[in-house]
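The following block was generated as part of the benchmark described in Methods. Ligand: uridine-diphosphate-N-acetylglucosamine.
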Amino acid sequence: MKFLLVAGARPNFMKIAPIMEAFRKQQHRPGLEIRLVHTGQHYDPKMSNGFFEDLNIPHPDINLGVGSGTHAQQTARVMIAFEEVCLNDRPDWVLVVGDVNSTMACTITAKKLGIRVAHVEAGLRSNDMSMPEEINRLCTDVLADLLFTTDPIADQNLRREGVAEEKICFVGNTMIDTLLLHMDRARALPLPEGLRDGGFAILTLHRPGNVDHRETLCSLFATLLEIARRIPVVFPAHPRTVARLKEFGLLDQLQQDDSIRLLEPLSYLPFIGLVAHSRMVLTDSGGIQEETTVLRVPCITMRPNTERPITCEIGTNILTGSDPDRIRTAAFAVLDGAVRPSSIPEKWDGKAAERIVNVLLNVE
Ligand code: UD1
């Protein structure tokens, strides 16, 4: 059996790493062939190579080098380049993870060539069609032959959309496999100068809905600066966000006011180490909502909705949208010591990748 595994952008790398490792343990099986394709959607060393090193992911067998562009350009470039790979390699299965443009592009390409597709992290729904990721999730899941899910809510979403029961497989969360494997090593890293355990907050912000509009971004930073007066805020910034801060004249102000400490994007271990030691996280990311739930760090998600509702229902996540009052109230409550009981979702136990590989190796 020949498998092509696809990763393209930063949040894919921690999801693919444990699957590569679980396949490596099965290398002795006769006829098993695994190839890793990096689409090159993320290409900055800080958004890509650092993750391969930290997570011990083997060098990709193929890099499509598609780079940035509009959604159509990026998706089209992945499809053209990936079609050639599929035609040359003729895999039995293509495995995609997450919800980025590369996920959808490779799924469509493979299916049109009659190649079966497995989607890891299927069934997540924000029900918000203004998010490019929601479109990617819907297209991927309607086409995939095997849908590996992280929680029972995702299973329900798929059933509601008419996906056949035998295609749905609740396996847990491969991003959490990676977190559990590396957590101790990450925690042991020294903190950046001037920061102490539990004495700082982390900020990440990159979603177009938050960063691409001057008014929204200015209003968010006015509130974040208020919070930063009560606790130092560390901000590893996505390149898109830095570009917008510059364009809207906010970058100089941030660089002068050192209560929000602007950093380059961090690779996996330093980032997780910081999260584990932080008082709280303010974010608009998807995966960080899950990581904070497992690390039991309060997470304030500055989005109107989430495709990961389980992190709000039983985890540490609080949705505030971009509303200044809601963000401030949630952050101040954490700083004033409010603690909400939380628990870790079922099967987020470090064994998801093993379950996935076990299913794939036994499929008809
Ligand atoms: C992508 C994913 C998003 C994920 C995010 C994590 C899609 C639709 N979105 O968004 O779900 O949460 O990754 O980071 O797939 N850029 C660089 N260097 C890079 C990559 C990007 O400078 O290595 C800059 C470019 O200016 C580019 C912009 O970031 O135009 C956006 O990159 P892109 O890959 O289109 O989407 P992200 O915002 O990173």
